[in-house]
Fold Probable arginine--tRNA ligase, cytoplasmic.
Amino acid sequence: MNEDLETIRKRTDKAENEVKELTESFKKLKALAQNGNLVELDEGNISEELAELITQNTKLRHRLAILKRALQEEKEKSSQNTMESLLDSLTDLFTKAVTRAYPDLPDPPVLLTTSSAAQFGDYQCNAAMPIAQLLKGQGVKVSPRNVATKIKDNLDQSGLVENVEIAGPGFLNIWVSRLYCQKLLSNILTKGVLPPRLLHRHKVVVDFSSPNIAKEMHVGHLRSTIIGDSISRLLEYLGHDVERVNHLGDWGTQFGMLIAHLQEEYPNYQTESPPLADLQNFYKQSKVRFDTDEAFKKRAYECVVQLQAFNPEYTAAWQLICDVSRKENQKVYDRLDIKLTERGESFYQTRMETIVKDLKERGLLEEDEKRYIMWGLNKEQIPFTIVKSDGGFTYDTS
């Protein structure tokens, strides 16, 4: 019995010592973390897990420093080709001063506006009053005028500001350096008007033009083309990464009737190039037959299914028609100096097959009169038609 108690006592003492060691390690780690230095711990006095955490932390801090340097270099590089905003520069200057004056204040408001009269300077900073209110909420009583004085004392001598005066309860009246303005005007005269500084560069997709293959581009397509190109140019000028997408109508039922008409009118089209220069007239002929001849309409639908199955004979006919139409459209694009990346409906064909397969495997499709439909949350509403009875896809699918 006594031996058992002794064993338990030893285990308890050992556990207590381990707890003390861990507590001391934690305190030391916490102190070093607060000082921003985790590399001074004695590795002999810490566990392997803690040592690994410290190593990882050091690596992450090193990577973070590299990223910060790269980010700063990128900002400096991008600012070389942008026009400096006087208001933005002043806001940055006073934000740094406020942060330096009140480092423990989260997200302090920095409000700069143009002055209402020349006697009050060029700009005015009204941050002192709201900051005084925030400090009051933390139990610190200080007048807005004292806050304004502290902000003024922490301003960098950047050459941007010629004079700062405190007025009234705590307004900061700012006079911009005339030499600084002279420098900005000189840059405009030598470099021209540059875009403003871009805070966040985005990937922007502009979908425009998008004519239908085998149909003539009409004024609606030209309007979309010109407006879309103008938007793209403006975004590119600002520095965004712009993807100009041309979502051509190059797939669907109309190609079934075009291919069927091509096969009948020019059966040797694969070896002898058919005269399709007047593609618009060719389209009208096939459309008339499609609307009046039931047998032709049936063959057209069969051609659509074969095309969607990527039958080589039908894809060759489809490609022939598309190439003729593209050449005509390109004449318009060249004349207007339009640059586009083609992403027609055909681009998504195989992707739609993958989606349909996934929906079937998940049990989300329901067969209905040889077609596949998908219901929304409310089954009383009209369902989506995902696959038509002839095997073709719909706009719902894409």
In short: Residues 271 and 316 are 11 Å apart (CA to CA). The first strand starts at residue 112 and ends at 114. The radius of gyration is 36 Å.
